[in-house]
């Protein structure tokens, strides 16, 4: 129930920011639409920790900031590789373990790897990631486990809760 | 004065984003196979699009709904682009495409192909 209410508030804020309307009639229509969506989602039983991860808390914000900076650094590396005349690529494919206990955490980790240019997650099965990297250096950065550790920290609060 | 600084920053980020997109496009042409090319495409939809959005945010004079919508576009890209990249390379794998790999590389800490479950 608490999750349904927080989903409703989230949807209504989203609707309001996109529409920008303040007339009572339209605000009412917005509220009705949100209620309908929450009702359907409730009936479909998709308001759980995956569909509406309200337990992730604000700890994810510093992680996003860190990830954005990593993305900028990785972009510069890939740009250098592409622009250098010799095209010094050394593509490798390797498997590594995702240390997050829950699937949502593993998906956050896998998507973070994909989001960083130079590394793409090809497969994720039973907590084993299969990663394709453009250069050996990129592969070593993933294997250093820094990102893995940080995702675990973000998820730290909710481990064992579900 | 403030106006000029904001316009300057806006130009800087828009040009930077455009440059990144151009480099990404060159990468898509230069790199040899679908997997390495997806890395170049990844540049375009992370930093290329991100820098363009930041540049546009400086154009929105002040805090208003346009700014909020630009942030929302950024978040939507942030969540969807890794999914599409992953779907692309996974489809390529499923279709039997073999990635070009550098031979004889031993990576410390990576799991071996045999005995995956015995870590």
Structure description:
Chain B: It comes from Terasakiella brassicae. Chain B: The chain crosses the membrane at residues 6-28, 40-58, 70-89. The complex is a heterodimer of chains A (162) and B (119). Chain A is mainly alpha-helical. In chain A, strands 1-3-2 form a three-stranded antiparallel sheet. Chain A has helices at 2-19, 24-44, 60-83, 103-115, 136-143, 146-156, and strands at 92-97, 119-125, 128-133. In chain A, helix 1 crosses helix 2 and helix 4 (103-115) crosses helix 6 (146-156). Chain B has three helices and no strands. In chain B, 71% of the residues lie in helices and 0% in strands. Chain B is elongated, with a radius of gyration of 20 Å. Chain B is mostly helical and 119 residues long. Residues 115-119 of chain B have low confidence and may be disordered. In chain B, helix 1 runs antiparallel to helix 2 (34-59) and helix 2 (34-59) packs antiparallel against helix 3. Chain B has one domain (2-98).
Topology:
The complex is a heterodimer of chains A (162) and B (119).
Chain A: H1 2-19, H2 24-44, H3 60-83, E1 92-97, H4 103-115, E2 119-125, E3 128-133, H5 136-143, H6 146-156
Antiparallel strand pairs in A: 1-3, 2-3
Chain B: H1 2-30, H2 34-59, H3 65-94
Helix pairs in contact in B: 1-2, 2-3
Protein name (chain B): Sodium:proton antiporter
Keywords (chain B): Membrane, Transmembrane, Transmembrane helix
Transmembrane segments (chain B): 6-28, 40-58, 70-89
